[in-house]
Amino acid sequence: MTDIPRYQLEEYRPLHRAGNDHIPYPIPGLELYSSKGLTPPPMVPARCAFYRVSLVLVGEVEIQIGLDIHQHRAPSVCFTYPNQVFFKRGFSEGTQGYYILFTENFLDELVPSVRMPSEFPFFNPDGHPLFQLEDVDVFTGHILRIQQEMQEDRPGRVKAAQMHLYLLLLEAKRSYERQQLGVSPVVGDLVARFRRLVGQHYREKRQVADYASLLAVTPNHLGRVVREATGRTPSDLIRDLLLLEAKSLLRLTGQSVSEIAYQLEFSDPATFGRFFRKETGMTPLDYREMQD
Fold first, then answer.
1. Which residues form the HTH araC/xylS-type domain (predicted)?
2. Is residue 183 assigned to a domain?
3. N or C: lower Cβ tally within 10 Å for the chain?
């Protein structure tokens, strides 16, 4: 079943690079670019089969990771790990920064991918993916050294890039720990577990009762706790990710509205159309045409 696109690193570059933005000596498994070389990103949800690090130096952008919405304001850094659903929108005029993308095994010689969530808390599902940087100059210094290794054909440049990327992550970890961010304050409670389950199962599980059963609570109890913590119902949060999926399929696939409706397990296209219009104020076809 087709769902939110999952990009490999080599597929992602054309979506964001201007055609003349050339890297003289690319390093397999690693991408780095600044806002200077960016083309407007697709304003639709996506998954990536790699790690992402974004640094905002000027301006801000809103980024949604799963069900959580963050304001990525200068000087802040944001991290996502493979297979997370994310969605960027609302770039302020003149927003500037850097993006680093690297494959799951790029740093295996220094820290195996299986240890990344414990080594770097911002790559942990229970951690904070976005926070303010305390020493931006040190962080950007490592970015510029990586950039230099990609621009010059020098011996050992792959290893040097790996080392600077590791030191960049270590600097972020130090800033993270100095701010005593730890893990999300709701981690371990019912709301946190519900949100994680929704992120995993929203396509096949649409009923609050499904999640209540997984969490060993009653639907009424789950609804009450989620509303108190978020101001929204469990059904609202399930619909949020379903809507992201629908937008992605409309924007990035050639499937008909009917095909998408049945794929997303609506009873018929009309029901899907009513859902989409209620959530966005437009029909699925209007949304698709607007994005072209």
1. 192-290
2. no
3. C
